[in-house]
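step=encode ok
step=design start
structure_in=
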């Protein structure tokens, strides 16, 4: 940024904020429409000035979108469920344990599958290995009743886990 370097507590223009966050200014204006929690001061002529807390929130939104892989609706849900302080903390580099991962981790997926039954390798069978009958079965959508029941049970477990995480987040917000 050319010119005088500002302190951490200084207000930033939209151009300065865009440069610091490495996003175009029009993206910041777009985010203001999508995230009502983001409310920069508007001065004469409609010029935006971002306060330090606005910058922290912008950093958190950017981290969730660009680093953690969330989509806009996901960030809106995090803001609603976890709160602005949580997103600001994420912008400061904190990675709280209650932030649900977005990207699928193959090891976690394998462990989950192991809990439900045998896990078959994704790589092709090499010579000398025998292929299990399940690995040769055609992949079809889960349409039988047993598959539907397993899917319903998994959905209920996920909903219970989400409720627990929301309760923990609410408790942490009240505690801080």
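sequence_out=
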């Amino acid at each position: 940024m050319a010119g005088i370097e500002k302190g951490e507590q200084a207000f930033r223009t939209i151009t300065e904020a865009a440069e610091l966050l490495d996003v175009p200014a029009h993206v910041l204006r777009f985010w203001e429409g999508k995230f009502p929690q983001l409310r920069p001061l508007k001065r004469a002529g409609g010029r935006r000035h971002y306060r330090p807390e606005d910058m922290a929130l912008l950093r958190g939104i950017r981290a969730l979108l660009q680093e953690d892989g969330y989509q806009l609706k996901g960030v809106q849900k995090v803001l609603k469920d976890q709160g602005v302080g949580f997103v600001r903390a994420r912008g400061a580099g904190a990675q709280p344990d209650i932030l649900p991962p977005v990207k699928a981790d193959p090891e976690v997926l394998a462990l989950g599958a192991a809990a439900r039954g045998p896990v078959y390798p994704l790589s092709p069978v090499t010579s000398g290995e025998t292929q299990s009958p399940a690995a040769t079965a055609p992949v079809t959508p889960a349409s039988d009743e047993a598959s539907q029941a397993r899917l319903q049970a998994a959905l209920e477990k996920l909903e219970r886990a989400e409720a627990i995480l929301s309760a923990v987040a609410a408790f942490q917000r009240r505690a801080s």
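step=design ok
step=annotate ok -> Residues 113-127 have pLDDT under 50 and may be disordered.
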